[in-house]
Amino acid sequence: MYTLRVFQLCAKASKVMLLSIAIGGSAVAAPVIASYDFTGAPQSTTGTGSGNEWVFADQNGSAQTATVTTWADVGPDELEKATLHQLADLRNAGLGSCNSLETDCLTKGNIRAITESNGKDWILIMFSEAVNLTDFTLAPDLGMKKNPQSQFIDTTYFTGFINDSDDLLGASYSDLTARFGLTSHTADGYGKTAVPVTINANTVAGGEVWGNTILIGGDTAAASGAERILLQGFTTVVPVPPAIWLFMSALGVLAGKRRTAG
Asked: Second label for 160, Cα 20 to 30 Å away, from 113, 124, 166, 176?
């Protein structure tokens, strides 16, 4: 009898909780879609040189943020901090990188993109919470010439969880997978293009890609040619909290038992 009473009280509490969510916080149960425009102004910036950091706010108004830094492999498979840039050329705009092997980054637009010449550049995004890393948009850096040429836009990227961007300092590519547990993905086959390409991380992986971190660079295995890429935007999804579904499932079971008993 006591066990049955406790069960009934728990069921009642669950109903009250769900009712309060439905009345006062229905948005809590809906997936949160956050979108970031990396062609616009960041919410805040830290530093102006190597290792600078930009924070972008969600365009949809949630409290989620995206913290962006840039890194480069300029030595024997070892990452160092680089300088984050925001470029605008004749037709495309987005985030790029300038590493320690590159000079005159403020006057030579094409070496401020994510490139594989004079070191290999990477853009790191860390989100303020664990999310489904849904999709991101890359644009070819067409340069500031009167007749801009299409560029390769293939990409290799790593996804997963890290605690702090500074953890990457001095890391090798094997460290990314073995030490940090990041997963490597490659999206290619786009060839040369003059227009932006949106890459769905879930489609590439064949399932949902979760994490608070994504490290985006040119295709490490591409035989077609070096990429010159700009990162334009990103979309993430935070689904309905699992606890809500557990409550709803439990209520469904209780309702079935009650109908059977009646």
From this structure: 113
